Amino acid sequence: MKTAEHSIAQIIVYPLIQRLEQPTQTSWGRYEAVSILVVEVRTTSGVSGFGEALARFAPHGYGALVADALAPRILGHDALAIGALWALMRRALSGRAGGMLIEAIAAIDIALWDIAGKVAGMPLWRLLGGEGRREVPVYAASVNWADDDAADAAVADFLDRGFDRIKVKIGGPAEAAIRRITRVRERAGDAVTLYADANWAFQPDAAARVGRALADHGYAWFEEPLRPEDEGGYAKLRAACAVPLAAGESNYTLDQARGQIEARVLSHVQPNITRAGGLSETRRIAEHARAHDVAYAPHVGMSGILCELASLHLAAAQANTSVMECACAPSRFKDALADIAPGYRRARDGMLAVPDRPGLGAEIDRAALATLHA
Ligand SMILES: [Mg+2]
Predict the structure, then answer these.
(1) Are residues 208 and 246 in the same domain?
(2) What pLDDT score does 10 carry?
């Protein structure tokens, strides 16, 4: 067999961890520290690509998974045959695709796309051959749900910074959530687009009450009202209230997103590119959503700059992009890791420009990789 010009020569893992300056509180839990896995893929031609896995805990475990289970399958192969490499890596697991394996594959997949862009001399938004947008609408995330005064301050701060789309975290009980929904609408005014994210806080009956309040106050979506496995609950909720539903950050592959897309239970599907198998699989999810008139709304959350950049390129290329999350909490995974400022510093008037350099469009700071090493 002829050796490919850009064969995979080496895969290096960087398990990273940071203590958060502002601990993040959701209805699911409190995060004092957060981790990710960064992966570097080097080719025989000397091109280096970087990717990221959503690895909230145990980043060394993800590193071992890449080194022991995934790298041996793809070393020596053509780095540009990304679809074939994805299938090879997926075969490391004989059961249903999901969990840490798919998150680890995401890191390599994103790195391979970074390489493909660098080899082509094109930013990914162009290489993907899609809409060719130069900027993407973003919303500010998030107004924390824990405290009224802090919530008021966060709304004022986001408005000051030019965001006209803002997401609010809500939690149980339903009455507290409805009070929060009402208060934030009053503070933000009617011209601002508001979204509410429950991180699975509610049982179905409570979710229906909250959903009706969100519709009354003109919220643009109700995100993850129920636990992701309760697909029947989502379908009933969709019938019971007028607010559009959004979810998908908890899914790994298209197979997990397919049912809610095809039934149009969701109005916006929100895969996280560093969880849902990287750019390749997330693009499949976004395209499937497009075929069913469901919008693609990338989730970023506590992920790092590589997640943000990969999501931004795909959002710029994808015809059915509605709006992308712009996570505004200070994070060294966004601030320190690359030579490009994170979205929450670059966004202007609620729009985020897509980088123009080849691949993901950023150089990774190797000193930062060492400083943040877990
Ligand atoms: Mg969410």
Answers:
(1) yes
(2) 98
